[in-house]
Amino acid sequence: MKLPSRLSLVIPILVASKVTSTCRCLYGQKCWPSESKFAKLASQLSQPLLHPLPPASACYPPSAPSGNCSDVTANYTNGKWRSDQPGSMQNTNFETFISHNNTISACYLNTTLGIPCGQGSVPPIGVDARSGGDIQAAVNFAKKYNLKLAVKNTGHDYLGRSTARGGFLIWTHNMKETLYNSTFVPEGAPVTTENTFNGDFPPFSFQISSD
After folding, report:
1. What is the CATH number assigned to the segment(s) 35-171?
2. Rounded to 10 degrees, what is the CA torsion of 153, 159, 164, 165?
3. Nearest residue to 153 (alpha-carbon basis) of 179, 121, 175, 168
4. For the segment 83-97, what is each residue's pLDDT rounded down to a tens digit?
């Protein structure tokens, strides 16, 4: 009996598993959720919705700056300061956007260039996540309306994945609290070691499981 070739077995699987890709919904398109839908999302969150802006936007318009331009100028290259801004990236080029016709949307700190401050690649709206519930609500919302989703912590992603032009942002920067429960024992995961640290921090111990 002649056995089928590997290729003849693989092709039907590839055909059967073919997935039709669709473009994500972006800000400004008809598919973008209405204000009432965003308001419904906001009611499920622990924090108000974010409306991120490029950091230099505080210096615009030059004749009457909308924010604390002096603070922006003093800290513009400060990585710690940048990490505290939901609309800021560690590399400023990831805040900008170059379209197919080579026009640039950006917000430059140098206001003397005479270029209007644009949103660039900074998502126009997002969630200030402080809990698993916030993230769950945000992800479900993005899935329901097919939104382009970006997740940003400190903005250190040098591939630019912490931002998305016209997208929806989940900002996890404020999820930094760490709690230690000395009575917690993981089920089905045997404890292998226990370490104690005595340095600049108060003495404490933690357990490492084998998983």
Report:
1. 3.30.43.10
2. 140
3. 175
4. 999 999 999 999 999
